[in-house]
Write a structure and sequence with these properties.
- By secondary structure, the chain is mainly alpha-helical.
- The protein has one domain.
- Helices cover 73% and strands 0% of the residues.
- It contains six helices and no strands.
- The longest helix has 25 residues.
- The N and C termini lie far apart (44 Å).
């Protein structure tokens, strides 16, 4: 049973790592410009306006979108490495939480997207909890730091 659990976590780390390396690389590939809608009288729904404002706010400062891509690539590579998977999972935790909350609050009608982003977050938390022994030694030392 322990071998099956180990294989499950290896597959989880590799797949989550590959997913975020791909997502990070996509941040550096420019999207082709879309054609403007011919009818300007059609107003998009409020949640679409909020989504565009949120993504536009992330892209507005010229540094944040590429920084997010670098963080996703770095965390993905750390997860793929298996040796530094815990560090990659910690680095990726705010990103997966933000993706989940984006789908929960700004795209609640997109059930498949909400489910997938929930699985990303759950997988990330599982990786962190799987290495709880390492965390306990790192954060909860029995010796005081200062004497």
């Amino acid at each position: 049973m322990q071998k099956i659990i180990s294989i499950f976590f290896i597959v989880l780390q590799l797949s989550l790592g590959a997913l975020f390396v791909y997502a990070g690389v996509r941040k550096f590939i420019p999207n082709p410009a879309r054609k403007a809608a011919t009818e300007q009288s059609i107003e998009p729904p409020a949640h679409v306006v909020q989504m565009k404002a949120f993504i536009g706010g992330l892209k507005a400062p010229d540094y944040f979108w590429p920084l997010l891509g670098v963080v996703e690539i770095l965390a993905g590579l750390l997860l793929i490495s298996q040796y530094f998977a815990l560090a990659g999972a910690f680095l990726l935790l705010p990103v997966t939480l933000n993706i989940f909350l984006f789908h929960l609050y700004l795209k609640p009608e997109d059930t498949p997207g909400l489910l997938m982003s929930g699985l990303y977050l759950a997988g990330n938390l599982l990786i962190i909890l799987y290495d709880y022994k390492k965390l306990r030694l790192t954060f909860f030392t029995p010796k005081p730091l200062l004497k």
